[in-house]
Amino acid sequence: MLRGVAAETDPALVETLLQQATRAARLFAVDGRELLSQIEQACWAAANALAPGSDLQLTRLRASVEASVDVVRLEGLLTGTVPRGVDVDTALRWWVLRRLAVLGRVDQVRLADELTRDPSATGQHHAEWARAARPDPASKAEVWQAVTGGMCSNAQVRAFGGGFWQHGQDALLEPYVDRYLEAVPGLWSGDTPQTARFATMLLYPATLVRQDVLDRTDVLLSSPGLADGARRVVLEQRDDLARALRARTAAVAGAG
Description:
With 256 residues, the chain is mainly α. It has 15 helices and no strands. The two termini are 25 Å apart.
């Protein structure tokens, strides 16, 4: 993919390909760290080689950030160490901060400071995503309660839910597998169908690629009182997780 994408000039197509590659590295590989490092380094090199200020340069830079665990490089983007021609605007700042939040480098004080810089509704939702993504037990618990307790708007559910499950946070997130299975029926009895759909989809434990998660999902799906809408969403999420597990199993078999 990295060889092929180097020949593409459409930023939207390049973005889609890199997103798919990053997702595959995280979900389908047993240990995707080396693959993610390849994506990060290739995209960082491309961002430094492409036309300064171009959309293609920004697309490559964002992909590098998304795959990165290099805190020094990420922090440098916020302090001026950027490829020539890159304007670190509000949108790019949030993109970097969100990645830093996943890596545990952003606390609530820093998020509040950033919201002072960008108090818009978009900034608020970025901050909510970052809050949910932080590898912090208290933040996870507060976000979970807010979403499953019916205290969020649709936009907040998308932000909180989108940030909640992060790769590399398995031990912290393990208790939320059963909490999800317990919460789903109530989501569809207390929230609007749209809010329930987003919460059911985004709170599914998609980062825990294991057979026991599939088995526990099947227990939920066998519940006779489960709403049809909930069943459909859970089946879709289960299918994605099963595909990832098959890919990992095949990789192990191939290596053996």
